[in-house]
């Protein structure tokens, strides 16, 4: 699922809080930022993946009140894919 993939991209478990999501995003974007890694050709791709994962998870948390219950995740994925 998209939400699971986003959590994995940020190295988070199933019950991550918004604080943990933000912290993981900050750490990872600093590590993979293209300006910090000018010789790494994969840095931009990783930076984009991390940014998209963060965007999805923060949107999800704002609209579903930090819930990672299975039913809420399924409803979110259906809503996003429409």
From TrEMBL:
InterPro entries attached to this UniProt entry: DnaJ_domain (IPR001623), EMIR (IPR052423), J_dom_sf (IPR036869)
Superkingdom of the organism of origin: Bacteria
Pfam families cross-referenced by the UniProt entry: DnaJ
Location of the J domain: 5-72
Protein name in the entry: J domain-containing protein
Signal sequence, start to end: none
């Amino acid at each position: 699922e998209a939400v699971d993939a986003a959590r994995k991209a940020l190295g988070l478990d199933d019950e991550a809080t918004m604080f943990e999501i933000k912290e993981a995003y900050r750490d990872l974007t600093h590590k993979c930022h293209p300006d910090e890694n000018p010789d790494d050709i994969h840095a931009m791709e990783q930076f984009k993946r991390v940014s998209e994962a963060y965007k999805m998870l923060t949107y999800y948390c704002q609209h579903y009140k930090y819930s990672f219950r299975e039913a809420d995740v399924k409803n979110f994925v259906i809503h996003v894919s429409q």
